[in-house]
Amino acid sequence: MALSGLDIYKILPKTNCKECGFVTCLAFAMQLAKKGVEAGKCPYLSEEAGNILADAGRPPINLVSIGSGEGCLKVGNETVLFRHEEKFRNPCGIGFIIDDVLPEEQIKRTASRLGGVSFERVGQILKPDVIAVRQSSNSAEKFAAAVKAAVDASGLNPVLMPSDASGLRAALEAVKGAAPLIYRVTKDNIREFMPLAAQARVPAAVYGDTLEEQAELVKELNGGGVAQILLDTGEQEPRERIWRLTQWRRQALKKNNRLLGYPAVTVLKGKDPYSVAVEAAGDICKYAGLILLEVSEAEETLALLTLRQNIYSDPQKPLQIEPKVYTIGNAGKESPVLITTNFSLTYFTVLGEVESSKVPSYIVSVDTEGMSVLTAWAAEKFTPEKITDSLQKFGVSGLVGHNRLIIPGYVAMMSGNLEEKSGWEVVVGPKEASGLPAFLKNLS
């Protein structure tokens, strides 16, 4: 639980030595409360006080890593119940489940197809995160081989879904060093699974029938050396699942319940892909850290990846691109110059239409602090002066052999003033980006 400035002041040495850079210990405490300075700046802080501050500074939802290397999935570290209060920090993972009873070649083909799902949206690459292999066979060797084949073919972070300790042991050996998630620990298998998870130092998902049972299992796992934990909702109806996810979040954030302060995992089953997608969408919003899907086609997750991107963007900071000149195609001296803002959605919409026109062009992205065209114009962030400054800063005149600009039709009213300020001839383009292909092809 976060401490106030006065709470922090009470455990400081109160020497007012100024060695921390502040005039008084109270001033230092106030900055600590606002996270404007590190506790280590105090040279006389006791070990006990340091431990108290470190514990208070921990996020309510612990950070958990699944996988290894740069591509590992990090979930948790959340600090708020509602996105508008600040933001959600680590996007929930999305992954697929494969059964080990499938032929090895089919496992490889399916895993390769699922791992190949990737697309770009407003400048970000969206793709799934994990591949889960479920042990449906009675063979530990078959399970381990399926895990190895799926992980190698997909390139995704591994999740192990063993039916017994021998299967788990074999699978951990098959992907040694890959830091897989173990799904799942229950009251029935904790004695067998906990030592293996602790020895391999890998995260584990845990399930209990009630919140109290879940907390007791977490406590036992912590005592057994398993620090990274995900809370499993189990097979619940959507209403019950959302209730459980919300209760865990509230317990961690509002009640400072450390035993429930972990990200959550949900497993969604069903033959109807649309129903599964709708349920998964609810889990993304509230408050899953990882979602495992039984799907037949990877394309079913595209909408979920897009929703995840929207939910985990910063509501107080619009998605922006770097303000500069972007060269589209084999642009040269006679290529048109289009002006737009640095709001990602605006830029990438314009980019898509320019690319579809097949007309090599330059797009000048003006720094409007991430605002769209009309919003930026109304806020005086997209003005003749700003556009003129951008043209000069980016050296646009040196790229082309003409002095003609194309501005969005929605800000046609600035054309005369822009011509006067910049010295460029201004051409008013279409209001909507969808009109750009025909406009550019007919531009003389």
Key attributes of the depicted protein:
444 residues; alpha/beta; 3-methyladenine DNA Glycosylase II, Chain A, domain 3; TIM Barrel; Rossmann fold; 3 domains; eight-stranded parallel β-barrel; five-stranded mixed sheet; 16 helices; 17 strands; 39% helix
Walk me through the structure:
The strands form four sheets. An eight-stranded parallel β-barrel has the order 3-6-7-8-9-10-11-12, surrounded by seven helices. The N and C termini lie far apart (65 Å). The chain has 444 residues and is α/β, with parallel strands linked by helices. Helix 9 (238-254) links the parallel strand 10 (229-232) and strand 11. The protein contains 16 helices and 17 strands. It has three domains: 5-57, Orthogonal Bundle (3-methyladenine DNA Glycosylase II, Chain A, domain 3), CATH 1.10.15.40; 64-311, Dihydropteroate synthase-like (TIM Barrel); 325-441, Rossmann fold (3-Layer(aba) Sandwich). The mean pLDDT is 93. It is globular, with a radius of gyration of 27 Å. Helix 4 (104-115) runs parallel beside helix 5 (140-154) and helix 5 (140-154) packs parallel to helix 6.
